[in-house]
Amino acid sequence: MESAMSAGIAVAEALQNQLPWLENVWLWVNFLGDPKSLFLFYFPAAYYASRRVGIAVLWISLIAEWLNLVFKWLLFGDRPFWWVHESGYYSQAPAQVHQFPSSCETGPGAVLGWLMAPQVPMERELSFYGLTSLALLLGTSLIYWTLFTLGLDLSWSISLASKWCERPEWVHVDTRPFASLSRDSGSALGLGIALHSPCYAQVRRAYLGNGQKIACFVLAMGLLGPLDWLGYTPQISIFYIVNFLKYTLWPCLVLALVPWVVHMFSAQEAPPIRSS
């Protein structure tokens, strides 16, 4: 694992030092490779192309990100500061590095969504999604407090990044571990609410043409900006609550509200029947 991290540092450093004129390109690549992009971009794109594949991408996204969070705790939770400092883990990395290649999961997550579409749960009882969301929250909390009780500092990377980053404001609040948990649990609950909403019931059997699907995607992306920036506050507890709520809302918008609006406004009225 240390060799993989060292290789990631070396790649990031080489890209920044040898190709500095591509900085904006790599920032864009970093955005597309961010796990959050699976929820906010790839999930809607896949859903409007194929309903089953889109739901599969969402399932794989939240499961993969949750497993990524837990495995990072189990693998790196026992790494004290002296290991990071003496190993040169941060001294090898340029101050501007935000995300290493090994941390990108967007590509594998999207591919798994396409491959596992026939196996993922599609439409279950609302209680199934509520219990899934609750299990993610309680399971992660149990793991966190168990490791914390054992004396493991699970926030060591945040502390080091805040201390050594050239500009502390670059350490975004949504990079904290429980930010991804609130995103995953909120998405699981939101999926269930969306699938049982009246809007979804009206459009689930409707046929949407290519133009309508493009309109759905454009409208969803138009709602993305305001929703994504909602709730960025320095108060961590409030941020977690708002993050949970907005990712609960996101599947409702993508699966139900946006297709319903597009379908209602683009549906052609039947011509009146002339009496003979």
Automatic annotation (TrEMBL):
It is found in: Membrane. One of its GO terms (cellular component) is membrane. Signal peptide: none annotated. The chain crosses the membrane at residues 55-75, 126-147, 214-232, 238-262. Keywords: Membrane, Transmembrane, Transmembrane helix. It comes from the Eukaryota. This is Glucose-6-phosphatase catalytic subunit 3. The gene is G6PC3.
